[in-house]
Amino acid sequence: MKRTFVTLLIAIGFVAFTQAQETKTVSADGNTGAKIKFEKLEHNFGTIKEGTQATVTFTFTNVGNEPLVLNSVRASCGCTTPKWTREPIAPGATGEVTAIYNSQGRPGKFTKVITVKYNGEEGSESLTIRGTVESAPAEAAPPVQANPQ
After folding, report:
1. What is the residue-wise DSSP string for 65-115?
2. What does pTM read for this prediction?
3. Angle ∠(19,20,23) on CA atoms, nearest 5
4. pLDDT band at 24 (very low <50, low <70, confident <90, very high)
């Protein structure tokens, strides 16, 4: 009787353990979880005038089979401000990451990276913006006036 009772407890424990395991949905092509696919990973602004707020929007699709959540979006420096879709993106739906580059006081070539971290299997993606900032024309100094004595 004692042996039967112990065996029954072990069987119940095993069934409870296997039922508690997380199940992942696997699609026909083998994808599991959320997966991000950007239309493009890089943008070249070409030549812009100093003082321009250069803006580009990177569009992505959740090609996985679970909701996609962007955990963080960080730029490589303070001159670039990212904005992004904050709600979970359903499978097949799209979202956006917008990068705004402030060119004020930054003449010359630039390359900036925006790192997107998300809940999918690969976990992160890098976006790149680049271009050249044309110096603003120097302001002419006001004429000097002599004081008559």
Report:
1. SS-B-EEEEEESSTTEEEEE--S-B-TT-EEEEEEEEE-TT--EEEEEEEE
2. 0.72
3. 80
4. very low
Provide the residue ranges of all domains of the chain, joining segments of one domain with +: 36-134
Answer yes or no: are the C-beta atoms of 38 and 60 closer than 8 Å: yes
For the cut 60, the answer to whether the pLDDT of residue 141 exceeds it is no
143 to 137, 138, 139, 147, 149: CA distances (angstroms): 18, 15, 12, 13, 19
Query: Residue 133: helix, strand or coil by DSSP?
Result: strand
Sequence-ordered list of residues with C-beta below 8 angstroms from that of 65, at least 6 positions apart, any chain: 25, 26, 27, 31, 32, 33, 91
- Between the CA of residue 132 and those of 5, 41, 96, 137, what are the distances in Å? 77, 19, 24, 15
Q: Among candidates 33, 50, 32, which has minimal Cα distance to 102?
A: 50
CATH topology of domain 36-134: Immunoglobulin-like (2.60.40)
DSSP, collapsed to helix, strand or coil, labels residue 145 as: coil
Q: Give dist(CA 59, CA 106) in Å, integer.
A: 27
Are 43 and 128 a contacting pair, CB within 8 Å?
yes
CB-based contact 111:42 (threshold 8 Å): no
